Amino acid sequence: MRMSPARVWREKGARYRLEGGKCKKCYKVFYPPKTACPYCGNLDVEKVELPKRGKVLSFAIEHSVPEGYRHQAPIIVALIELENGVKVLSTLTDVKPEEVYIGMPVEATLRRIWEESDEGVIVYGIKFVPVEQ
Q1: Three-state secondary structure readout of 31-47
Q2: What pTM was computed for the model?
Q3: Separation of alpha carbons 37 and 52, rounded Å
């Protein structure tokens, strides 16, 4: 996936701070942020910072991963419910696949996702790590 430095800059809030959107009409909070509310269609939405902690609702372990990510295999993809009830699909890191369980407490952390060697762009993003309760 090619990412220009300008695109990385535009997406920095959602990518680095776990930002979501909040509708000013129905007051629902959602992730990722969008220009229109996915619940009521209202165009008046604001960006809000989401809680960093949550729990694993479901997960899958991906052994067959795309070229460029094979050194990271297996990748654990998890559906995470944040403390405010918002659901986020993300990857888990710093945990072995056999250690992951439903209800596992996790916390958002900033990690390197990939590097565009020809552009010199290093892309970081949010992943989740297990935490003690």
Answers
A1: CCCCCCCCCCCCCCEEE
A2: 0.79
A3: 22
Q: Is the per-residue pLDDT at 118 higher than 80?
A: no
Cα–Cα distance, 125 to 127 (Å, whole number): 7
Q: Give 87's strand partners.
A: 81
For residue 49, what are the domain limits? 5-130
Q: Write out pLDDT tens, residues 26-73.
A: 999 999 889 999 999 999 999 999 999 999 999 999 887 777 666 667
Tokens representing residue 112 in the block: 């390197």
When divided into structural domains, the chain yields a total of 1
Burial of 23 (0-12, 13-18, 19+ CB in 10 A): buried
